[in-house]
């Protein structure tokens, strides 16, 4: 989700694939995926309509949990499924609603679900009911074994190193330490920041600026780096992020560092000069971004869950257009161990 003033493309050639996918979802045949045989055509797309900023967490019992922004920006929802395709028809549960007044009272954006030290956490952004753009990062927690059950308790604001517009918190563990990456407004742009964490809801510092908009494709309409997601593979820490306005100009960038480097030293991070995933009119994909990563049913294949529209001409403010749908993309890897997102390929 971005702070700016920001369904299905039904292709006849894909009807048979969609029909198979729906049958797969209804039957619940999650065991159909075999190791090293996962293909893009195995998946229903979109996996969830009108759900932006999608995040999928695969638990140790192979249950998938889906969380995302809803067009009304007024609540946090969860879905539970035994396969990616089953997310499509999974019953949705509202686990938290915005406040009627005060903080956490508007613009409930980009929730993420994490399991940290055996406890569930949801990171999300929210404005105030009386000042909807005074957006900060917050957390919920739940000590139930199943995040669809139990009570979600408010943990309050996640405090960064300064007070300003902040959102899109994500967390990851590396070499026994936990880190948070988030987007925060400073010097006329939304930048990515990173800090070590003292706990699941507290930053300990120091804080580094991981990335700031510097290339033209990151500064269309607005200067934006946001929506980070972490994938550690092949001796590297990869961080995808989204840039520019949330219309058809929205696009994904890539940062990376070696796993053995000091990741709190900004000099050890590299950045792609061009987007790694962006609008492709020839396949009907517009403004892809704000992704997450998960593992396929085979336990090996990396998947990217992201949102996009199927048309270019958003009328009015992109924030009021509900048609950003959650989609699934099978990730390939090149000879250098870098992710290949398939810019030229349809879903």
Strand content: 35-45%
Radius of gyration, in angstroms, nearest whole number: 19 Å
Shape: globular
Largest β-sheet summary: 4 strands, antiparallel
Tally of helical runs: 1
Explained architecture:
It is a single chain. The protein is mainly β and 347 residues long. It has a single domain (12-340), classed as Glycosyl hydrolase domain, family 43 (Tachylectin-2, Chain A), CATH 2.115.10. The chain has one helix spanning 15-27; strands at residues 52-58, 64-69, 75-81, 92-97, 106-116, 119-127, 136-142, 153-157, 166-174, 177-186, 189-199, 202-211, 225-233, 236-243, 251-258, 270-271, 286-295, 302-309, 325-330, 332-333, 339-340. Strands 1-2-3-4 form a four-stranded antiparallel β-sheet, with no helix packed on it. Strand 5 and strand 6 (119-127) form a beta hairpin.
Fold blueprint:
Blueprint: H1 15-27, E1 52-58, E2 64-69, E3 75-81, E4 92-97, E5 106-116, E6 119-127, E7 136-142, E8 153-157, E9 166-174, E10 177-186, E11 189-199, E12 202-211, E13 225-233, E14 236-243, E15 251-258, E16 270-271, E17 286-295, E18 302-309, E19 325-330, E20 332-333, E21 339-340
Antiparallel strand pairs: 1-2, 2-3, 3-4, 5-6, 6-7, 7-8, 9-10, 10-11, 11-12, 13-14, 14-15, 15-16, 17-18, 18-19, 20-21
Task: Write a concise keyword list for the protein shown above.
347 residues, mainly beta, Tachylectin-2, Chain A, four-stranded antiparallel beta sheet, 1 helix, globular
Describe what is shown at a glance:
This protein is mainly β and 347 residues long. It has one helix spanning 15-27; strands at 52-58, 64-69, 75-81, 92-97, 106-116, 119-127, 136-142, 153-157, 166-174, 177-186, 189-199, 202-211, 225-233, 236-243, 251-258, 270-271, 286-295, 302-309, 325-330, 332-333, 339-340.
């Amino acid at each position: 989700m971005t702070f700016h003033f920001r369904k299905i493309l039904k292709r006849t050639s894909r009807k048979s694939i969609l029909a198979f996918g729906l049958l797969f979802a209804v039957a619940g045949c999650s065991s159909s995926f075999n190791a090293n045989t996962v293909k893009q055509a195995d998946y229903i797309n979109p996996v969830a309509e009108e759900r932006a900023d999608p995040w999928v967490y695969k638990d140790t019992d192979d249950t998938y949990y889906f969380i995302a922004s809803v067009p009304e920006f007024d609540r946090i929802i969860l879905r539970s499924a035994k396969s990616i395709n089953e997310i499509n028809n999974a019953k949705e549960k509202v686990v938290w609603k915005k406040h009627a007044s005060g903080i956490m009272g508007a613009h409930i954006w980009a929730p993420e679900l994490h399991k940290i030290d055996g406890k569930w956490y949801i990171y999300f952004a929210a404005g105030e009911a009386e000042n909807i753009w005074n957006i900060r990062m917050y957390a919920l927690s739940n000590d139930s074994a199943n995040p669809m059950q139990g009570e979600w308790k408010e943990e309050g604001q996640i405090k960064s190193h300064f007070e300003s517009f902040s959102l899109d918190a994500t967390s990851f563990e590396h070499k026994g330490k936990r880190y948070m990456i988030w987007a925060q407004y400073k010097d006329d742009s939304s930048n990515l920041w990173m800090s070590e964490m003292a706990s699941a809801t507290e930053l300990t510092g120091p804080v580094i600026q991981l990335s700031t908009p510097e290339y033209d494709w990151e500064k269309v309409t607005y200067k934006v780096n946001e929506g980070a997601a972490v994938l550690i593979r092949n001796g590297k820490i990869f961080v995808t992020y989204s840039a520019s306005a949330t219309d058809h100009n929205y696009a994904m960038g890539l940062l990376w560092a070696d796993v053995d480097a000091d990741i709190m030293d900004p000099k050890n991070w590299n950045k792609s000069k061009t987007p790694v995933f962006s609008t492709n009119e020839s396949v009907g994909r517009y403004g892809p971004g704000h992704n997450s990563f998960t593992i396929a049913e085979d336990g090996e294949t990396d998947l990217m869950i992201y949102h996009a529209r199927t048309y270019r001409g958003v009328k009015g403010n992109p924030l009021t257009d509900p048609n950003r749908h959650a989609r699934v993309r099978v990730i390939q890897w090149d000879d250098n161990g870098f992710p290949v997102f398939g810019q030229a390929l349809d879903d």
